[in-house]
Amino acid sequence: MSLMKVEERDLVIIGGGPAGLAAAVSAWEAGCRDILLVERDRILGGILNQCIHDGFGLHTFNEALSGPEYAARYIEKLGQTGVEVREQTMVLRLGEDRVLQLASRGSYSAVRARAVILAMGCRERPRGAISIPGTRPSGVFTAGAAQHLMNLENIMVGNRVCILGSGDIGLIMARRMTLEGASVAGVFEILPYSSGLPRNIQQCLNDYDIPLHLSTTVQKIHGSRRLEGVTVAQVGPDRSPLEGTERYIPCDTLLLSVGLIPENELSRDASIPLDARTNGPQVDSRFMTRVPGIFACGNVLHVHDLVDYVSQEAEEAGRHAAAWAGASESSCEGTLPVLPGEGVRYTLPQKIAPSRSTVLSLRVTAPCRNRSVVVRGEGRVIARKSLVRLHPAEMIRIPLEAKSLSGVSQLEVALG
Amino acid sequence: MSFSYSLRLFFLSENGTIVLSKLVDLGQPKVGEYRVNTTKRYDVLIVGAGVVGCAIARELSRYSLSVGVVEKEKDVSFGTSSRNSGVVHAGFNYAPGSLRAKLDVEGNRLMEPLCRKLKVKMSRIGKLTVALHSQEMPGLEALKEQGEANGVPGLEILDSFAMQKIQPGVEGVGALWSPSSGIVCPYGLTIALARSARQNGVDFYLSWEVAHIFREESGFILENSLGEELKASVVINAAGLFADRMARMVGIDDYTLYPCRGEYYVLDKRLEGTLKTLLYPAPRKNDPGLGIHLTPTVDGNILIGPSAEYTELPEDWACSASVMENLRKKGKELFPDLSASDFIRNFAGLRPKLSPPEEGGNRDFVVEDRQDVPGFINLMGVESPGLTSAPALALMVRDMVGNHLELQEKANFLEELPGREKSFAESSPEERAALVAEDPNYGEMVCRCEQVTKREILDALSDPLGARTLMSIKYRTRATMGRCQGGFCFPKIVNIMTRELGYDPEEISLRDEKSFFFPGRVRKEEVAL
Hints:
The complex is a heterodimer of chains A (416) and B (529).
Chain A: E1 6-14, H1 18-29, E2 35-38, E3 54-56, E4 65-66, H2 67-79, E5 84-86, E6 89-94, E7 99-104, E8 108-118, E9 122-124, H3 127-130, E10 140-142, H4 143-153, E11 155-156, E12 160-164, H5 168-179, E13 183-188, H6 198-205, E14 212-213, E15 216-222, E16 229-234, E17 247-250, E18 253-256, E19 260-262, H7 265-269, E20 294-296, H8 307-327, E21 336-340, E22 344-348, E23 351-352, E24 358-364, E25 368-377, E26 380-390, E27 396-400, E28 411-415
Chain B: H1 4-9, E1 40-47, H2 51-60, E2 67-70, E3 87-88, H3 99-118, E4 122-123, E5 127-131, H4 137-150, E6 156-159, H5 160-166, E7 174-178, E8 182-184, H6 186-199, E9 203-205, E10 210-216, E11 219-224, E12 229-237, H7 243-249, E13 258-267, E14 278-281, E15 293-296, E16 302-305, E17 309-310, H8 321-334, E18 343-353, E19 366-369, E20 376-380, H9 386-402, H10 429-438, E21 445-447, E22 452-453, H11 454-461, H12 470-477, H13 489-500, E23 520-521
Parallel strand pairs in B: 1-2, 1-12, 2-9, 5-14, 12-20
Antiparallel strand pairs in B: 3-8, 4-8, 5-7, 6-7, 10-11, 11-12, 13-16, 13-17, 13-18, 15-16, 19-20, 21-22
């Protein structure tokens, strides 16, 4: 990089989706006046642009907006700030020293930032990662890629459809393809419960008589050129197929909705420690990663189910990043580890500052009813949230008051 | 659907004949073209555009001969040549005096300068053939002796300490170290050989499936499945898995090929650098392959495989649950911290074996200038080490062609291929900045995982050899080969093809018309964005 000129900025935000947009607006409002927002697509909005269904913003705006409408609210706010936006620009390298390499049609350049916010979002788990035996014909798409092609490119991906995995995008696409005249034979989920939101099961499957087959998986893919069919089979408790339950379903399209993975290539590049449970960076109450000055929010941190929570989290991260960039702090302040206990898949942040009020985000490991999530420290209950329905697909948030944390050295979050 | 876009895009060639098949470059000579009602005559026609066919084509293009290559697929390197370990073998696995041994050792020597000229990635990383138990050590000694008899340089028996110094963490009591073994990009080599042949005047007829071969007094007439014909004085059968069928078309019934499948897993680049060398198990008797081994690729992935399963069909590339499970298990044994997402893809290739399942093991390659069918040069059972052998096979076949035709070297033969040596992803920041300044399309990322730029996609799409299918783009650029497996770049490539290059969605396919991706538009009326 020696020959390249290095541009200096206070704050660089990587990604102009819901997380990056909200973080940029809040960092500006917090007083940071030198912000660069980098977006690789032609327009801001991220994945929201292909989400033409409604249901976004129920918490934030008390309205059921479409994805582009939700993004537009933040893009409008951003337009009233002095944040510099570079579209069609992709960050290809990020160092621990917060030097970024940016590629765009205009230039390949370097930027050094006092603070960086990671807001790259997540990506879909591909077929390879779930190892489905059989052939590799055309007609197998991840649900999000199919959604992109249909909603942004006006291209139909198939006519007779099976969907593997009951993630939200798969459910949304089951309805979308049905509305466009395709026949959806069913959604097949290897787990004994759906991994999508209950409202999507109702509105996308039940309302269209699309069957959801739980504890069932695609065992084999058929077709040497275009997909011709799939063999599905029920699975036992160990998730391996049960003999005698196989059946062949002719179809020309298989959509995969088998999980989302936070996109942390740049985080790894910058040697940021990740959490094996969330697949995202470990952060403190300020959403700062273990590398000073680099913050993370949204789906790159942990996969969310509601965009409203992405925005809230990003606003927090933006505020703290602005403070960091302005104050040239250099300490990591998260000292209090928060550990997931029985029945809890993960909690976030992984470490918090006892001096700050913090909202814990968490997910349970399996669906259950009428249970409480209990936060304990030094043997006493710090916070408790009782819920009628608990489901891994629905993120749970618990606010912790700073004053309740005094004298506590470690927190455990478990089902009570 | 099949011909619509070629007719639209490439309606007339410069001499006014209608071009029916896929063709981009209108300069002479043609690729994938044939004319109505005229039967073109060649000195030599090669059947099959795999690595062997393309290596022969390039070698023959040094001489004043008219040469054509016919290929049933829409692109070169769509068969076994793309579906293998990409290993440059040293030549110790085969009996002294066999064609395999001779061609392998010679091919290994020729490979490095060839790859340099053609700008193909190759690396001599060496190979450890590992004995897990002391009973296997005599087998390694025997391999070493065999290799030395074959002329393989530098073979050494190592104890476990010396072995660990080369590959930390590898278990076993000892190993045979072969420093001349290496790796090459197999499809990169095949495509580069074809481009070089093309640059030197060889015509390529893609999507041209030979249906009949008729013998004439002075040669052969090849007829394809659409009834079109090409003539040649000499025909070279380099049809790989289909070579026995080709031979039967001229009355040679001596051979039957038995497809033997090898399944692989591709591991994430996260593990790049952990595997320093090729790791093979000590050979087992009658194994139709060389055992499941670990291969670093020139692009930084690791391959686990291949299995060896005889199949009925020559294109049965399906992967099976039990083999996949076994490969995953082996992978986890070797790299304990592997997670499910590190297995980014599985694939399979097929060996054209001369030895039937009940026999197993390996028979020698057949390379013959048939006396009973004069002018028919017959290659049969060219499986592993066919990739390594290809440059040597090409010389051997050239000499056979010399029995029939005069080989007069051309003054204007071009040894080297033009173009950049490194991809954008492999370039330094300064080089990247210069590239973007030269063409803004270098600044637009299409494939995020492999950092493939739009310029590289456009270059692939304008390659005169094929490259209108997703597989063609993939083999030329690495787009879709990263850990997200096309989730990000596939819609982007579709966007470029439809919105900028004018393809209809129906024309975009994986490898041919039958593997189309899209039945059409969602809405007939396009809304401008």
